[in-house]
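Field notebook, page 286. I keep forgetting to write these up properly, so this time I am using the form the group agreed on. The chain and the ligand, pantoate, are recorded exactly as supplied. Prediction of the bound pose follows.
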Amino acid sequence: VEVITEIESCRSAIQAAKGAGLRTALVPTMGALHSGHLALIQAARQRAGHVAVSIFVNPTQFCPGEDFAKYPRALEKDLSLCRDSNVDLVFAPSVDAMFPVAATTTVHVARLADGLCGPLRPGHFDGVATVVTKLFQILPVDLAVFGEKDYQQLVIVRHLARDLNVPVEIVGHPTVREPDGLALSSRNAYLGPSERRQAGSLSAALFAAVDRAAGGELRSAALLADIRARIHAAGPATIEYVEVVDAETLESLRVIDRPARICLAVRIGNCRLIDNVAVDGRPSTR
Ligand code: PAF
């Protein structure tokens, strides 16, 4: 695997791969790679002859008081996982290279960042949209793979690519889960043992709602009340939000009358967990 920290060399490496006739793919990450990321890399590999992974803990997407300083960093282990997964290129820039002090431009995707995690993490999606736009400039790939676990992020990235005419195909990849259903996340490392057991209640509650919707209960309020009750029954948790939204516009739905997503953010101990499932009145497929 070729490890590149310089922006210009990275752009040249992608252009060289394209010049050699290869379809190129990017998996953007903040490192601390786990099986969820490896599934994204595999999905990229199925679609492309040249696979790049970016590893950059982006300071601009952390709000004041969030976990930027303690976010897990494990570059050597990440590189060895990338090597094992036959990644062709790792782009691991410094913060100064990505955000020189003189940089003042921000990418803001209107409306889609107004709900769900947006109001709770002010500036987060501007930070994501800006860094992803920069990555698309530095790695002008044919396609980029993002996990559905960060569903709002995925929708925002799709829109920014379309609105800014970035010639990149955005591929969404289904959430990878632990055997008890917990969505894989680098932040799961913050959970203590009993919190980790409790955390399985989030996906269990979501999948129960999908099944209940398949049984004919399409009123969001009824499904959401049940999800809240299940999560609270599992132990002390703060539900930041749980909502049924239109799968494309992310607008809140009172009734599931189109493809929708149930999204939640819950704090268990010091750990903020997010998860979501597709719901359209058909049974869950997990
Ligand atoms: O999903 C992530 O890991 C990050 O938000 C991303 C897309 C790499 C941007 O920093």
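OBSERVATIONS:
- The first helix runs from residue 7 to 19.
- The chain has a mean pLDDT of 97.
FOLLOW-UP: compare against the apo run.
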